[in-house]
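Pasting as-is:
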Amino acid sequence: MEENTTLLSVCMITFNHENYLKTAINSIVTQNVDFNFELIIGADNPSEKVLSICNEFFHLENPNVILLDSKEQHGMINNFFRTINACSGKYITICEGDDYWTDPYKLQKQVDFLEMNPEYGMIASDINLINEKGDAIPDNAMVLLQREKRKPEPNVFDLLQINTINTLTTCIRAELIKELTRTAQENGLWFVYDYWFWLNSSLDNRIKLLYDKTASYRVHNEGISRKKGFLDTRKHLIHFDIVKKIYHDPKFSNINKNNWQILAKIYYNLFSSPHLKINNKLTLMGYLMARPSLFVSFFSFFFGLIIGKLKGGKNKKTNNPEVE
């Protein structure tokens, strides 16, 4: 490797994280690595305290710390886009300003894996949960479900069922995430968030999921993904985008029965979603009619739900039509 080559970029977006930011940055700059890397901080309309914290790290040579200052508020996804686009490394990893890494060898292990395994597009691992004060808290239902359903190499059908990728643990090839970023920007995909990137990555790339815990995810009410309706609205639009791509990709025309059944559940939830426009639902109906195996799986699943309700199944009374 050339001495001045930046092998990896850390993408950090921050907004109102002044109480947590120094911990996050410290967990990055203290990584034990044998390569050059950079930390790109996308600070969205930062306070003076945020600027002061960042200024403490500008003297470092490895990583090279770069602040993308902004006097205007970009919003989470546009701030993410501009920060990704500013990264110059061969690999990109992500850590938001309210989380932090706990494994000092996280970057070294992940880069070593991707360097030795070019057929993989990305790698991720497990997390601990902490509260606003940084104290460890019990795993919530989502984390427990992730661990129950996770696989060492999740594919797109696995991720459609449940997102087992924790963003703050990922390391991805730069050309992959930058191409997806360009696609989202050029097509005005306002609904994208990290889940969209991982699903799209899994369409054409292998993903490695390690079970060791390398980071702490902070659970607090200020997190944007905890805002009411944020995930529900976007999740269905993301699923619709992915099932369109699956339908038009020839390699998915002869999938196994289990994957047809997974798609059938996704279709059912999309048909039930108030966030999907009628023309999109008509598109889905056309896909059903054109794929006999999908058609059979969908109506088998649908009638199974009806029979289950008639027998007093678990879906008998619910305000949420979505099924797992």
